[in-house]
């Protein structure tokens, strides 16, 4: 098929799939945190914080990688609205991958809760202690999590649409090394 898309680089695919696993895990951990009042909350929170920071760091690397390794072009047969939707959804995903960990870090800072990465290693607060700011950021973090979940569902649906219905190489460009640079 002449409309086939070239593949992403190995680093791009690696960052994509590692982050996909971490983000899905974070969404489930977050759901577990808000749905429990037992001792599991503390265990889940001790996982949630360092994974969130890992996602933030990987997202920054991903932005750098995206700027230095342009993604393959979309198929020429995609309509203008589909191209706009693809670009807008990717921008929203990148924004949420960076904003969510920063909101969480800011929320924890405003609540005067340390972000322990491992052992005695803690991140410094990025905002002053402020209970009202903590409450606002907690709500914003929740809304952001729902937005991230929705955008991920749309992303997954689009990937399946391209892979199973259009068969235009968009899905395989992120799953295989075929034609990657």
TrEMBL record:
Coiled coil: none annotated. The chain crosses the membrane at residues 14-35, 47-64, 91-120, 140-165. It is a multi-pass membrane protein. It comes from the Bacteria. Keywords: Cell membrane, Electron transport, Heme, Iron, Membrane, Metal-binding, Transmembrane, Transmembrane helix, Transport. Its cofactor is heme b. The keyword Methyltransferase does not apply. Residues 8-176 form the Cytochrome b561 bacterial/Ni-hydrogenase domain. Belongs to the cytochrome b561 family. This is Cytochrome b561. The lineage of its organism: Bacteria, Pseudomonadati, Pseudomonadota, Betaproteobacteria, Burkholderiales. The gene is yceJ_3.
